[in-house]
Every structure is written in C-alpha cells, then in structure tokens.
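Chain A, query sequence.
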Amino acid sequence: MDASEEAESYYTLLGIRADGVASVVDVVMAALPRARARARDLLSEHASCESVEVWREANMVDRLARDG
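Chain A, predicted structure.
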C-alpha cells in the first residue's frame, strides 16, 4: 500500500444499476481501503446496484462489481 492509499481524502461512491444509472451516491472522508470497504457495504445494502464506482476528484480509482 502506498502513501496515497493511506492518506484520508474525500471519495464519491456511485452505486450503478444494470441500466447504467447511478441510483445511490455516498461521500466519505477516509483512506482508500476504508472507502473500498464502504463501497462493498453499499453493494450489500442496495440490491439494485450492480457495481459501485469509487471516485477521487475526477478520477475513478476503483470499481467493485457484485459477485455472482
């Protein structure tokens, strides 16, 4: 894990439905591992989401897809 993953930043989490619409939006202030954990939580909390994109500023830093 590099320093950029350990530093706290604002991350925007977008819960994406199968039709491509962002139906859930969450903003967290955390280090990247915690933002990823919150993204996994969103997938389990919102059955309509097929994936969650993790954004920092204008850059998508991760995309977590629903298993199965």
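The CA atoms of residues 15 and 21 lie 8 Å apart. DSSP finds two helices and four strands in the chain.
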